[in-house]
Specification:
With 486 residues, the protein is of the alpha/beta class. The protein is built from 13 helices and 18 strands. It folds into three domains: 202 residues, Isopropylmalate Dehydrogenase (3-Layer(aba) Sandwich), CATH 3.40.718.10; 133 residues, Isopropylmalate Dehydrogenase (3-Layer(aba) Sandwich), CATH 3.40.718; 102 residues, Alpha-Beta Plaits, CATH 3.30.70.1570. The strands form three sheets. The protein has a ten-stranded mixed beta sheet with strand order 2-1-3-12-11-4-5-10-8-9, with helices on both faces. The chain has a six-stranded antiparallel beta sheet with strand order 15-14-16-13-17-18. It has a two-stranded antiparallel ribbon with strand order 6-7. A hairpin with a 2-residue loop joins strand 14 and strand 15. Helix 1 runs parallel beside helix 11. The longest helix is centred in the middle third of the chain and has 17 residues. The protein is elongated. The structure holds NADP nicotinamide-adenine-dinucleotide phosphate. NADP nicotinamide-adenine-dinucleotide phosphate binds next to loops.
């Protein structure tokens, strides 16, 4: 993993203070790190709200991109997408630009932070896929009343995150990896993570590998959190689940994270810019300080990392808390920071450090065509139409149009439910129809020309917005059926 040093041998870190509570928590963490012997040279950069407000639609200026590309390590505060500026989250943009495909979010019970789960020995890590899924941000209004968000999951992305989760488990001496998905419903997209997990798991026989449905995972996490060790999951699921796990150990104020890729690593808190509590000197800086500890370990400053972690724990053991933990005797952010600095070098009582080894980054072949099918056949296509007519009317018009085509209308669905041929169900239809055409000869391979020809004649009668081919890869149907379709 990349790091670079300046002439004095200090590791250069791109430093982004962020928005909202960012400047308060980042300044706390930086002051503490600067009090240790860690050899660090900070390179301040900007991203987020200020950048959007200056008219940059991405929220990330070129100078920041260049700095990260050069340094490979980022320490950052939370970034806000102000309403009315920009299109995408600057945070997601940074993660995607630098392909930091893994988001590692550890939570471990802090003995002196009392929660309903105290004494349960919670010590788990969410490994969240960080660049794919609904976070690809590919969205369309298909009609004035229908929004679409593409959930793209790739075999390559799954393999990277699953292998990283196993490698991470080994580096931390952990015994179990759960893969949490919604593969029971989204059999192809979420199912791809499950399938990849099951094939990769056999290469790590020393680790117990288990699949769990994501909703049950959330349930089990609240009932038996001590049963979990490492959980690998898709981007959206990981986002939600990791806020939940932060709650188990005292809240977002205690949850650090690392965004890891082959070329760059970014360290930050799980929490956002929390504008409601910004500027009041009341926020808990622990999450970002612990993210700093993860960063120090990443760049090999192990002594400073241990020292800061121990000081944080010692400070909490002294009963020094910000108001998110204890409203009555709370200290301010700056008082908490001073206490941590004063306690550097002191050791907490109730804590045993985990022995960790350098993690091996998975080597994944760098090919564009990551998966090649031996055989492929096109069985037909789906076309999405906008129409105020009902299913029976659309069905009979389409049937008429396919008279001389190589394709025939198999069914029409509305929001995923088959409505033509009529099944007598209660579907609350809207003006957005998916019409499925398949080859009249079921053994044939539908040609693009057949699709184009039929689409042309459809265009004279209907407004259409989207086409999907119905593939069979290596003899396997590679599209889902509608509810009610057989
Ligand atoms: P949030 O900023 O994470 O804050 C949610 C709540 O958690 C806060 O209102 C506060 O609750 C509590 N909290 C968070 N951090 C805390 C801390 N350090 N100390 C004490 N309490 C803390 O979530 P949000 O309000 O949904 O998001 C605000 C903005 O941040 C959005 O623009 C979002 O897009 C952005 N965001 C950025 C990142 C990132 O850059 N990595 C991540 C998430 C969200 P109480 O005071 O009510 O207890």
């Amino acid at each position: 993993m990349k790091t670079i040093k300046d002439k004095q041998g200090k590791t250069i870190i791109t430093y982004i203070e962020g928005d909202g509570i960012g400047p308060e928590v980042m300044s706390a963490a930086r002051k503490i790190i600067d009090e240790t012997n860690a050899k660090i040279s900070w390179e301040p950069c900007v991203a987020g709200k200020k950048v959007f407000e200056q008219g940059n639609q991405s929220g990330v200026p070129q100078e920041t991109i260049d700095s990260i590309k050069k340094n490979g390590v980022v320490f950052k505060g939370p970034l806000e997408t102000p309403v009315g500026f920009g299109q995408n989250s600057a945070n997601v943009t940074l993660r995607k630009l630098f392909e930091t495909y893994a988001n590692i979010r550890p939570v471990r019970e802090l003995p002196s932070v009392i929660t309903p789960f105290s004494g349960r020995n919670i010590d788990l890590v969410i490994v969240r896929e960080n660049v794919e899924d609904l976070y690809a941000g590919i969205e369309y209004m298909q009609t004035p009343g229908v929004a679409e968000s593409l959930k793209l999951i790739t075999r390559k992305g799954c393999e990277k995150i699953v292998r990283l989760a196993f490698e991470f488990a080994i580096s931390e001496g952990r015994k179990k990896v759960h893969c949490a998905t919604k593969a029971n419903i989204m059999k192809l997209s979420e199912g791809l993570l499950k399938k990849t997990f099951e094939s990769v798991a056999s290469r790590y026989p020393e680790i117990e590998a288990k699949h769990i449905i994501i909703d049950n995972c959330a349930h089990q996490l609240v009932r038996f959190p001590e049963e979990f060790d490492v959980i690998v999951t898709t981007n959206m699921n990981g986002d939600i689940l990791s806020d939940l796990t932060s709650g188990l150990i005292g809240g977002l104020g205690f949850a650090p994270s690392a965004n890891i890729g082959k070329e760059a690593a970014m360290f930050e808190a799980v929490h956002g810019s929390a504008p409601d509590i910004a500027g009041k000197n009341i926020v808990n800086p622990t999450a970002v300080i612990l993210a700093g500890v993860m960063m120090l370990r990443h760049i090999g400053e192990l002594e400073a990392a241990d020292q800061i972690q121990q000081s944080i724990l010692f400070t909490l053991e002294q009963g020094i808390y910000t108001s998110d933990v204890n409203k009555t005797n709370a200290v301010s952010t700056t008082e908490f920071t001073k206490a941590v600095i004063n306690n550097l070098g002191k050791k907490p009582k109730g804590w045993v450090d985990r022995e960790t080894k350098q993690m091996r980054m998975p080597e994944i072949k760098n090919e564009i065509a990551f998966v090649k099918a031996q055989t492929r056949r096109c069985l037909g296509f789906d076309i999405f139409l906008e129409s105020g007519s009902n299913a029976a009317e659309i069905g009979s018009m389409l049937k008429e149009m396919t008279k001389d085509s190589a394709l025939t209308l198999k069914m029409i669905s509305n929001r995923g439910t088959k409505v033509y041929p009529d099944m007598g169900a209660y579907t609350d239809c809207i003006d957005h129809w998916r019409c499925r055409f398949v080859a009249k000869d079921p053994s044939s391979n539908v040609q693009s020309d057949d699709i184009t020809e039929l689409t042309k004649s459809l265009s004279s009668k209907f407004e259409w917005m989207h086409i999907e081919k119905l593939w069979e890869f290596d003899g396997e149907r590679s599209f889902s059926l509608s509810q009610g379709e057989d």
